[in-house]
Write a sequence for this structure.
């Protein structure tokens, strides 16, 4: 009896019935957002068939797994009517995409040799200097990271918060490294999304759910978890944009040169698959098309 009462209370607080109402608002956009999240996860298996090479990209893939769950939670919070929570989780997902790629690159010497943008930031300069000192003392640690990139977190653990460069610096450095390649005006595009989502994190009054009710439906101020189509649609649109950017980042991080035949074939097949095409991940599709063109298959 107590368990049933507790479950009924929990389901009410979660506002699960709102999922039906939200899906009725824009079912197609909801499916697009949800399935795009799964595509972000699925494409990693094409770039790393059979799990080969996972360890060498484990810094990014550690974040990749978390992004999948965070973006999902953001999606469902939005369907339930908790918009501020949904947007905050979405910004966290975007940050994980960017910082996961950033730390993955730092784990590899070919990227560490090209850190001019990072050096222009105070924290970034300290970060580069710290890593250089570590590898000067123990060159083998750099060699180990080429095999297991996730080891970068063990090295940075004591200072990872203190030496964490700001998002704008990370974006500029990722762009210089080519990790945002194929995104139109990548720094502006990604930073505008980040800026919009930051309004939620910094709890601007009209970005709280109470503020939304005051602006749109003041007569229902005291009702919880209202379905507000305008904010639901905005969230689904931003979710799709974040996953599109994230999928480009994933492709640029996980690609190997030269690409294995199995990967070439997998990318070609996925590009032509109607299930992929309906997702309208335009930036990601452009990047995969570039890979296919480079490898000379059609």
């Amino acid at each position: 009896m107590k368990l049933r009462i507790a479950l009924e209370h929990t389901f009410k607080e979660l506002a699960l019935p709102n999922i039906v109402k939200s899906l009725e608002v824009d079912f197609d956009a909801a499916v697009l957002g949800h399935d795009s999240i799964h595509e972000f996860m699925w494409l990693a298996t094409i770039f790393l068939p059979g799990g080969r090479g996972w360890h060498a990209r484990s810094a990014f893939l550690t974040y990749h797994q978390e992004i999948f769950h965070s973006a999902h939670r953001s999606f469902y919070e939005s369907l339930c009517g908790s918009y501020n929570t949904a947007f905050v989780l979405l910004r966290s997902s975007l940050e994980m995409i960017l910082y996961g790629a950033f730390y993955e690159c730092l784990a590899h010497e070919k990227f560490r040799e090209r850190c001019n943008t990072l050096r222009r930031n105070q924290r970034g300069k300290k970060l580069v200097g710290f890593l250089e000192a570590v590898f000067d003392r123990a060159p083998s640690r750099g060699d180990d990271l080429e095999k297991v990139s996730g080891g970068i977190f063990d090295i940075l653990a004591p200072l990872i918060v203190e030496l964490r460069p700001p998002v704008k610096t990370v974006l500029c450095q990722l762009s210089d490294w080519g990790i945002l390649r194929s995104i139109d005006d990548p720094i502006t595009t990604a930073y505008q999304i980040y800026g919009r989502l930051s309004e939620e994190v910094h709890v601007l009054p009209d970005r709280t759910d109470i503020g939304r009710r005051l602006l749109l439906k003041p007569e229902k101020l005291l009702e919880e978890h209202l379905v507000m189509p305008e904010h639901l649609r905005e969230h689904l649109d931003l979710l799709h944009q974040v996953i599109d950017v994230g999928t480009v980042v994933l492709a640029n991080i996980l690609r190997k040169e030269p690409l294995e035949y199995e990967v070439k074939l997998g990318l070609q097949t996925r590009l032509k698959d109607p299930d992929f095409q309906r997702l309208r991940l335009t930036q990601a599709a452009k990047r995969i098309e570039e890979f296919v063109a480079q490898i000379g298959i059609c």
Notes: The chain has a mean pLDDT of 92.
